């Protein structure tokens, strides 16, 4: 029995050892699977080339500075000869003396003026009421305006003036009877002139020696006609120069056809000589 047990125990131990050996033997090591080769790193996408910087727009060259407008030339001082030679619409400046003036109105006054060589008609010259009081015959003034023409009359328009100190000059009437009816009369435009021995003609078909511009109120110009030789002219008494209170206005109202008279006045021009009478003397 003991032998049987001993044999049995030996067998058990053999089996036990075999089992232990089996478990102790390292399990066949599986070859590690080769590590997956790392995927080759993706080549970095080539960096996008930076867009070339836009070329800066060329700087516009500064426009050259405009040249300053040349200063206006000063208007030259003129005597009568230079004034007569100047073109129409020329800006003029004349030094002259007042000879007579028409009525002041609305800060304007029309003036006959002269220097030693000729005369000027200054139409509607800007003038305050206060300054008008000092525009007396002989007063020297400096006039700036434009040489103009209306119906043949050469005058200064758009005029301003300033008073000057100077020797007063008052022209004497020039007797130009010998140029009556000739083209030379125009050379005396706006001057104080006289005509001797002219004869009063009927003004119109009524047979009257004169006519009122305003026959109802009789407060306007007077018109009359006179003849010397073969030439007849129509002259007037300018109401704004010599109104109904003046001697010349009253003298023309008393004229009779056939009267022989001496005349003085300023040789205005309206489509021909149109004396603005300041004196009428019946012979």
Chain-wise SSE layout:
Layout: H1 2-24, E1 77-78, H2 80-85, E2 91-101, E3 108-114, E4 119-126, H3 129-132, E5 140-150, E6 153-163, E7 174-175, E8 192-201, E9 210-212, E10 222-228, E11 231-237, H4 247-253, E12 260-266, E13 276-282
Please outline the major beta sheet.
7 strands, mixed
- Going by CATH, what is the homologous superfamily of the domain at 174-282? Nucleic acid-binding proteins
The CATH topology of the domain at 174-282 comes to: OB fold (Dihydrolipoamide Acetyltransferase, E2P)
Q: How many strands in all?
A: 13
- Show unreliable segments: 1-8, 16-51
What does this structure look like?
The protein has 283 residues and is an alpha+beta fold. Among the domains are: 77-163, Nucleic acid-binding proteins (OB fold (Dihydrolipoamide Acetyltransferase, E2P), Beta Barrel); 174-282, OB fold (Dihydrolipoamide Acetyltransferase, E2P) (Beta Barrel). It has four helices and 13 strands. The chain has helices at residues 2-24, 80-85, 129-132, 247-253; strands at 77-78, 91-101, 108-114, 119-126, 140-150, 153-163, 174-175, 192-201, 210-212, 222-228, 231-237, 260-266, 276-282. A hairpin with a 2-residue loop joins strand 10 and strand 11 (231-237). The longest helix is centred in the first third of the chain and has 23 residues, at 2-24.
């Amino acid at each position: 029995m003991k032998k049987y047990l001993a044999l049995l125990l030996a067998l058990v131990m053999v089996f036990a050892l075999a089992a232990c050996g089996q478990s102790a033997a390292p399990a066949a090591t599986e070859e590690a699977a080769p590590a997956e080769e790392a995927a080759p790193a993706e080549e970095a996408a080539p960096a996008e080339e930076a867009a070339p910087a836009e070329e800066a727009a060329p700087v516009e060259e500064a426009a050259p500075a405009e040249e300053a407008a040349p200063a206006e030339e000063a208007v030259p001082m003129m005597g009568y000869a230079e004034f007569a030679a100047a073109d129409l619409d020329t800006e003029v400046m004349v030094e002259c003396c007042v000879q007579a003036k028409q009525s002041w109105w609305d800060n304007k006054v029309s003036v006959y003026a002269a220097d030693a060589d000729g005369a000027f008609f200054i139409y509607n010259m800007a003038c305050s009421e206060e300054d008008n009081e000092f525009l007396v015959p002989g007063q020297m003034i400096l006039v700036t305006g434009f040489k103009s023409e209306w119906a043949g009359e050469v005058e200064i328009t758009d005029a301003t003036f300033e008073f000057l100190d100077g020797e007063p000059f008052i022209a004497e009437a020039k007797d130009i009877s010998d140029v009556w009816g000739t083209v030379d009369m125009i050379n005396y435009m706006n001057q104080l002139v006289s005509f001797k021995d002219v004869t009063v003609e009927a003004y119109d078909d009524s047979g009257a020696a004169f006519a009122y511009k305003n026959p109802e109120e009789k407060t306007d110009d007077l018109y009359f006609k006179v003849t010397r030789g073969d030439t007849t002219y129509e002259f007037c008494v300018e109401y704004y120069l010599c109104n109904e209170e003046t001697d010349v206005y009253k003298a023309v109202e008393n004229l009779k056809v056939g009267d022989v008279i001496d005349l003085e006045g300023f040789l205005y021009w309206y489509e021909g000589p149109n004396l603005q009478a300041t004196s009428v003397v019946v012979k």
